[in-house]
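Note on ligand handling. Small-molecule inputs were canonicalized before submission; formal charges were left as drawn, and no protonation-state enumeration was performed. Where a ligand contained multiple stereocentres, the stereochemistry in the source SMILES was retained. For pyridoxal-5'-phosphate, this procedure yielded the string shown in the input block below.
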Amino acid sequence: MIDFRELADKYKTPLYVYDFDYMTQQYEALKEAFRGRKSILAYAVKANSNLSVVKHFADLGSGADCVSIGEVRRAFLAGIPSYRIIFSGVGKNDDEIREAIERDILYINVESEAELNRVELIAKELDAVCRISIRVNPNIDPKTHPYISTGLHGNKFGVDINSAKRMYIFAKNSDALDPVGIHFHIGSQLTELDPIREAAEIVADMIRSLEAIDIELKFFDVGGGLGVKYKDEVTIAPYDYAQAILGTLTGLDLTVICEPGRFMTANAGYFLTKVLYEKENQEKRFVIVDGAMNDLLRPSLYNAYHKIEAINKSDEQPTQADVVGPVCESGDFLAKDYPLPPLEHNDLLVVHSAGAYGFGMGSNYNTRGRSAEVALENGAERLIRRRETFDDLVALELEYLNK
Ligand SMILES: *Cc1c(COP(=O)(O)O)cnc(C)c1O
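Structure output:
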């Protein structure tokens, strides 16, 4: 049992708390599921990019899937070896591409023909050979929230199968490009296996047709997307996930790369917030707390559900309330119509499943400093990011004030 009250008193609120032992379990379970094949788990840094979190995965042997050069630099700082770092994303700029090539990472995940041309040009300028993989869009409906669906032709990600084939032939004929992988990532918070299996089949067939024209890839990169339980979702077991993918690879000698983000950290994380006031009007009961959309955006952005627990209040009768923050937006809420007991000033609420896409989506909107972050590991706790101060927030502006 985590003593949330003690953590809240010691580090103040709002506060993020991460259970590193839970992250270890998730990593080991997924790694074990792919046993019997060469595999790399490349943790998707954007899910939770705190350096200590990334280092924790580095220590477990993880790679990193990065979507900006900033994330690539974080991966290096945290000790992920270059040969396990992947750089994905629809819009990489020239400087980012150049640095990725110079850092000699495992491969750049290319998402358009135009980008392939840029990568080739920059590799030539550097007199380098750049390993690439191509992100294909298998046009599969992942049956998840439209904002986190990525594998349909209506989404901006990847290229269709026919363009991909042209791109592989182009890359093979270039002395500045080395096509080593193929990648797909159909969406996030996936809870159904069929779309994953279908996508893997399409991409595995593509590999076979490339082999027929002497293009031999080494990496089969299935992206991330493994869903987690926020409320009552039935999720995919790691073993079934791995089997569905491996089952499509008969006769192919490939290293499987998997890029889990949410699966690794979501349920390792808790967001602690204190009650400021209650108020009621004719229609609604509001619980006003010190945490807000600038700390945890998912409810506002996706209408996402997070379980909320009122600490030491379990014997009182709950009624429905909106849990709202101090930010000046009607969209600033952590929950709507959520059953909660009567609450008073300083009561503590724990928002569950906040370890992925929580802190990282935070902002300084309303000149609110971002929360501190605390790690729990082997029964001990430690600060892994201090709370932002007002001085931090104005530091980049102050020097221009009187110019
Ligand atoms: C976001 C992302 C991931 C991680 O997705 P999760 O749903 O958090 O597992 C993996 N790969 C790519 C390319 C991504 O953009």
